[in-house]
Amino acid sequence: MKAIRRFTVRPVLPEPLRPLHDLARNLRWSWHTETRELFRAADPEGWRPADADPVRLLGSLSAGRLTELAGDAEYLGRLAAASADLAQYLDGPRWYQEQRAAGAELPSGIAYFSPEFGVTAALPQYSGGLGILAGDHLKAASDLGVPLIGVGLLYRHGYFRQTLSREGWQQEHYPVLDPNELPLDLVREADGTPARVVLALPGGRSLYACIWLARVGRVPLLLLDSDVEENAPGERDVTDRLYGGGSDHRLLQEMLLGIGGVRAVRTWCRLTGTPEPEVFHTNEGHAGFLGLERIRELIPTGLDFEAALEVVRAGTVFTTHTPVPAGIDRFDRALVARHFGAEGELPGVPVEKILPLGTETYPGGEPELFNMAVMGLRLAQRANGVSTLHGAVSREMFSGLWPGFDPAEVPITSVTNGVHAPTWVAPEVFRLGAGQVGEGRAHQVLAGGPVADEASAQTGTPRRWDAVTGIGDQEIWDLRRDLRGQLVTEVRRRLYASWRRRGAGTAELGWIDGVLDPDILTIGFARRVPSYKRLTLMLRDRDRLRELLLHPTHPIQIVVAGKAHPADDGGKRLVQELVRFADDPRVRHRIVFLPDYGMGMAQKLYPGCDVWLNNPLRPLEACGTSGMKAALNGCLNLSVRDGWWDEWFDPDFGWEIPTADGSAVDEDRRDELESNALYALIEDRVAPRFYDRGAGGLPGRWIEMVRSTLVNLGPKVLAGRMVREYVERLYAPAAQARRALEPQSARDLAAWKAKVRAAWRGVSVDHVETVAGDASGGSAELGATLALRVRIALGGLEPDDVEVQVVAGRVDPGDTIADAQTFPLKPAGGQDLEDRWLYEGPLTPDRTGPYGYTVRVLPAHRLLATSAELGLVALPTEATGEGGGVLMR
């Protein structure tokens, strides 16, 4: 019979075991080896690392086993040590506190919003790289002591679970998640009632949500859940699943995340006494409405919309993760207007002020759509991409928001992603390193704190990482084979389970015992399956791939995993194509597809592979952190120069796959060229190096590459390094900018911007001349100084409102300035009879060859983050016929 009601019965732990409760409900266990081992010891048979969940484990322990553990002195000693270690971790000063004590002006709190968080497989609230990155961000912030509050949604079905049909077609399953069975606690008011946030919906409806708390080390993660009794059925389903539903459903999710998320943060701070965040960080555009809620909060304090907008912008950081416009959420403007109109949310914030924030006011934009990334950029004074290359791609993609500026000057910087080493480094790798530097220091190294001394600072590599050079070749090779063997065991187990779900009988599956070999070069490929990641590029020439798999002396084996979005039939066809190839009896012992890729699988896959393959269409991979996780385990990368690999590639770390992205070839031809390059690399360079055995049967050059990857690449890819960059380059400046905007300063800045925008049509560069220096013949000597005189019309503005610059550098045949440098010009006199201002200054060319300059006028104010912030620039008019430049020989 089916139960008519469901509830969770929690275990009652004996008094000596009570600390297990706190250890289980703080997700630090997911990256703290000693705590995980403590839970494993409680039930060695029930604890599987890939599916580890201490909350479930404690709920499954029998009363007899609990009594036994409560009387085990050795176990209680380990429990006391783990509990004391957690207390010290939560309360002791860390890097951030040390920086503040040394006088650094850092924010008192940061709120970090993301639509998904991949903290642990026990809390399945992620789909792919964006969520894993967000989880690693929280964990690294915790390790460094950064006062972060995470904000997301609790999806009752999470992301889908993937299985395969007998024909290899992806099938989706949505398990129901009960928050009471997850490592979560309900946030309650002082009287014990559940805390609620509420949003107003059109038609007099309301959307309620409760707040669940996940403890991620020192960082609270607040997850909003609409499945509450106050809601009607439609509203209860708002947080049903990640990335599901139509436009209206997605808009409600993003309103709840952004607007409801701010209200949840306010509730948390009120209930706990936590300092209010000074900085709000939105991880992609999904949470962009948080800026509107903060504007709504400020308007009753006496600020108008424009002044409140300035305050909000100053304290907001926006991170874009997509290199393609198709990856951005866009909504019909009418839909947005309905939800923020008279009967909707944000009373006091006029909808006619909201809609322009998301309007695509650039060539090729669609003015009837509301673009969440565009709003994110307009509501944030600081923005970044997630690798150096992605920063450049983002500046190009969004350059229409800053007309008149070269893409290089678009105010979007980059902070290259990192990965949380304690989560992703295999215990065996950690123990090998700890044997060189000690366990405590090894933990510090993986946490990604700053380099230890001046010599280390100059190389960027802490000396403690150099200790890996002292590990012998045999130890490294034995470790790599052990990890490969563990992967083989895991693959066979998962493959057997997958085939059983596909309908195969036990008698059909004896061949699985021979799948993979712990002594064969193992290549891994695992990620989401959009078309640009090219899951099936390896299948381009199937005969050639079979030859590589079955090579008599240099064979390879490949482990593949990945999920296509449920609505992406094209991606599902790619999965099926790969599965059907891997099902071929001729090669199925050398290539496998594992369904249901997630964190549990990944933590075995990265360490067990020798080579990590990544072959996206360049430059469509924003960062691609899976290769970083592999590298931290001594896995070498074989990748297109995209994302992080573009900036940190080195022949000692792996191989670059040549690309045809600069060639005038169609997509099919490009795939052919790049797949051939991939096959050639594996056949001629990768496999021979792996099998090139020297003294003692060891591949000395391969081992040296593993060692170099660990020593030199390892410190760069850490999430600790990433979070420190966010703190120093984005969070701290944002907090300082926010503090500078007291109410009157905000009003003054808003009024100044309005004045500048209104006057800008009258700003022009009217006359440019060289008054000294020999450039009359169209050339000048290297080192010669040219004195420039420029007359500027300011349209009623004052000289203090603008900055006049010379922009100079080498020019191409089209007279475009490359590698530009800027030099200020200074006022040299008052207004003339034609209401023009005189500016003068020197220009000293510092390079030979074709050289040119131009002059421009930019708005200038002490509270602007960059001179491009307003997107306004005045350049010489073509009618003057002057100021084009000089040629230098």
Automatic annotation (TrEMBL):
Entry EC number(s): 2.4.1.1
DUF3417 domain boundaries: 13-123
The keyword Transferase is annotated on this UniProt entry: yes
Uppermost EC category: transferase
Cofactors required: pyridoxal 5'-phosphate
Domain of life per record: Bacteria
Coiled coil feature spans: none
UniProt xrefs under Gene3D superfamilies: Glycogen Phosphorylase B
InterPro entries: Agluc_phsphrylas, Glyco_trans_35, Glycogen/Maltodextrin_Phosph, Glycogen_phosphorylase_DUF3417, Pyridoxal_P_attach_site
SUPFAM superfamilies per the UniProt record, alphabetical: UDP-Glycosyltransferase/glycogen phosphorylase
Reactions performed catalytically: [(1->4)-alpha-D-glucosyl](n) + phosphate = [(1->4)-alpha-D-glucosyl](n-1) + alpha-D-glucose 1-phosphate
Presence of the UniProt keyword Transcription regulation in the record: no
Keywords associated with the record: Allosteric enzyme, Carbohydrate metabolism, Glycosyltransferase, Pyridoxal phosphate, Transferase
NCBIfam families: more_P_ylases (TIGR02094)
PANTHER family given in the database record: GLYCOGEN PHOSPHORYLASE
Purpose of the protein: Phosphorylase is an important allosteric enzyme in carbohydrate metabolism. Enzymes from different sources differ in their regulatory mechanisms and in their natural substrates. However, all known phosphorylases share catalytic and structural properties.
Family: Belongs to the glycogen phosphorylase family.
Protein's recorded name: glycogen phosphorylase
Organism: Streptomyces badius
Taxonomic lineage of the native organism: Bacteria, Bacillati, Actinomycetota, Actinomycetes, Kitasatosporales
